[in-house]
Specification:
The protein has 198 residues and is an alpha+beta fold. It is 28% helix and 23% strand. The chain contains five helices and five strands, in the order H-E-E-H-E-E-E-H-H-H. It is globular. Bound molecules: zinc ion. Zinc ion (ZN) binds next to helix 3.
Length: 198
């Protein structure tokens, strides 16, 4: 089932997600709906807070699509290739972080807007998988960036909170003035449909 993705400045995006006690059948179904929603919106990550659910759950799939529905894994890092995708993780927690990197981030909750955000370059993350087992991952590249972006959502933050006050104010006023692109217009333009919105 495709869920509605909340758009900034919806106040529900400011809520903090609570840890899950254990991964139930209901939570597995929610993860499935979130994956469906993420693919339908052509995003590479989605956090439960973005669909109005305050449970610590996020889904990620950064595999780039090649021609004809195949995945093109050639530009992925060695660490990224080791992670089974789609990645579904409950109660994610960063246990180690190293280095700095920047990336022009977009977000399904602020569609059509992109800004350069600084993140840790390499991180180690622990959490629960769909079978309620502890998982630990070492991530870098886009996958590490995406994980940090999604974990911000679980903490009630969006990427504009990571910008300088001036850039953040400028982006907020742009959104107020121009709003978000209409979905139908988006689909007519093939080039603009390929995004890295998380
Ligand atoms: Zn986002």
């Amino acid at each position: 089932m495709i869920l509605e993705v909340l758009k900034y400045p919806d106040p529900r995006l400011r809520r903090k997600a609570m840890p899950v006690e254990s991964v139930t059948e209901e939570l597995r179904a929610l993860a499935q709906d979130m994956l469906e929603t993420m693919y339908a919106e052509r995003g590479i990550g989605l956090a439960s807070i973005q669909v109005g659910v305050e449970k610590q759950l996020l889904v990620i799939d950064i595999r780039p699509m090649a021609e004809g529905d195949r995945y093109d894994l050639s530009n992925m890092t060695e660490l990224e290739k080791q992670v089974t995708m789609p990645l579904v993780i409950f109660n994610p927690k960063i246990t180690k972080k190293e280095g700095k990197t920047t990336y022009e981030e977009g977000c399904l909750s602020l569609p059509g807007y992109y800004e350069t955000v600084q993140r840790f370059d390499t991180i180690e993350v622990e959490g629960l998988d769909l079978d309620n087992q502890l998982m630990s991952l070492k991530l870098d590249g886009l996958l590490a960036i995406c994980m940090q972006h999604e974990m911000d959502h679980l903490d009630g933050k969006v990427f504009l909170d990571r910008l300088s006050p001036i850039k953040s104010a400028r982006l907020k006023s742009k959104i107020k003035k121009f709003g978000y692109p209409k979905k139908d217009e988006d689909n007519q333009d093939e080039d603009s449909s390929v995004t890295n919105e998380i």
